């Protein structure tokens, strides 16, 4: 692991995360959709500057739209508000959380992971059971990408969240 991310790894281990949300810093995804979004994000991440939401047009995001979630950092930087929740996420999670904060809808440990993106802006892979929504028969896999309108300070996050039927069946729910 790159030395710059070692403090992040130490800190995330102490965030109170459950088995529902495992962190994979190596970004080893189960399919190609997150890999292709990560490549798109990386193509807009130049000269050490983070991409902004405006660096992605709707045409480039079309393959991901149903699985995308956009989160906006609150002005006091203590939480994030979900500004967009894709239809495939809503179908699988069973609710539309658009307009709600992470602290309203997710366990504290998971919210802490998202907030670490403000201090350590790097792509993350989260995965685990969807027990946090009482849907133990589902597994989730998510790619979290930091965004910054000024290229430096994270003010949004783009998340690609996909779901499997169960830990024993690695087949995705069809789009």
Please characterize this protein's 3D structure.
With 175 residues, the chain is an alpha+beta fold. It has one domain: Beta-Lactamase, CATH 3.30.450. The chain has 6 helices and 7 strands. The chain has helices at residues 6-13, 32-43, 58-61, 87-93, 102-105, 108-119, and strands at 22-24, 68-73, 80-85, 124-130, 135-147, 156-166, 169-172. Strands 1, 2, 3, 4, 5, 6 and 7 form a 7-stranded antiparallel sheet that branches. Strand 4 and strand 5 form a beta hairpin. The longest helix is centred in the N-terminal third of the chain and has 12 residues, at 32-43. The protein starts with 5 loop residues before the first helix and ends with a strand. Residues 1-8 and 169-175 have low confidence and may be disordered.
Name some characteristics of this structure.
single chain, 175 residues, alpha+beta, Beta-Lactamase, 7-stranded antiparallel β-sheet, 27% helix
Write the layout of secondary structure elements.
Blueprint: H1 6-13, E1 22-24, H2 32-43, H3 58-61, E2 68-73, E3 80-85, H4 87-93, H5 102-105, H6 108-119, E4 124-130, E5 135-147, E6 156-166, E7 169-172
Antiparallel strand pairs: 1-4, 2-3, 2-6, 4-5, 5-6, 6-7
Structure, briefly:
The chain has 175 residues and is α+β, with helices and mostly antiparallel strands. The chain contains six helices and seven strands, in the order H-E-H-H-E-E-H-H-H-E-E-E-E.
**Uncertain ranges:** 1-8, 169-175
**What CATH architecture label applies?**
2-Layer Sandwich
Strand content: 25-35%
Gyration radius (Cα, Å) is 15 Å
Question: Separation of termini?
Answer: 34 Å
> How would you characterize the largest beta sheet?
7 strands, antiparallel
CATH topology: Beta-Lactamase
CATH class: Alpha Beta
The count of strands amounts to 7
Overall SS class: alpha+beta
Form type:
globular
Helix content: 25-40%
Helix and strand sequence: HEHHEEHHHEEEE
So how many helices? 6
The named CATH superfamily = PAS domain
Number of domains: 1
Q: What average pLDDT do the residues reach? A: 81
């Amino acid at each position: 692991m790159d030395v710059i991310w070692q403090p992040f790894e130490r800190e995330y281990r102490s965030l109170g995360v459950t088995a529902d949300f495992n962190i994979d810093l190596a970004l080893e995804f189960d399919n190609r959709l997150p890999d292709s979004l990560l490549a798109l994000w990386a193509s807009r991440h130049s000269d050490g500057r983070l991409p902004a939401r405006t660096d992605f047009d709707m045409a480039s995001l079309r393959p991901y739209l149903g699985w995308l979630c956009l989160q906006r950092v609150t002005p006091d930087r203590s939480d994030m508000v979900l500004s967009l929740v894709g239809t495939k996420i809503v179908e699988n999670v069973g609710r539309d959380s658009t307009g709600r904060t992470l602290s309203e809808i997710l366990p504290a440990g998971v919210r802490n992971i998202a907030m670490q993106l403000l201090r350590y802006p790097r792509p993350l892979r989260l995965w685990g059971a969807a027990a946090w929504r009482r849907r133990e028969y589902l597994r989730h896999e998510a790619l979290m990408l930091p965004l910054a309108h000024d290229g430096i300070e994270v003010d949004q996050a783009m998340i690609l969240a996909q779901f499997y039927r169960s830990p024993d069946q690695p087949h995705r729910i069809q789009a």
